[in-house]
Design brief:
Radius of gyration: 13 Å
Structural class: mainly beta
Distance between the termini: 33 Å
Helix content: 10-25%
Number of domains: 1
Shape: globular
Strand content: over 45%
Number of helices: 1
């Protein structure tokens, strides 16, 4: 299942995420993705969530743009994709 909300400067997507090998536990059955934000705003949201979350991948420049991921205090995975074309995050 996949859902996407588009509006303003940001796109919010969510999808179910378990593989056949994984067991369902609190929060791990879905992922939320924030995309198309300017990298400065993406970094602000990432840093705020990171205060109470476990960082999986720091917010960093990738060949496709800025990317980072974390798991929040409820066990939900978040992915962040900037629309910067690979510039360094603020």
């Amino acid at each position: 299942m996949h859902a996407r909300l588009e509006g303003g400067l940001v796109n919010l997507s969510a999808s179910d995420w378990l593989t056949e090998e994984q067991k369902m536990s609190r929060g791990n059955g879905m992922r939320i993705a924030l995309s198309d934000l300017p990298v400065e705003e993406l970094a602000t949201v990432f840093q705020k969530l990171q205060k109470t979350a476990m960082s999986v991948q720091p917010l960093e420049k990738q060949f496709f743009g800025t990317y980072g991921s974390l798991i929040d205090q409820n066990g939900v995975g978040w992915m962040f994709v900037g629309n910067d074309g690979g510039q360094n995050p603020a």
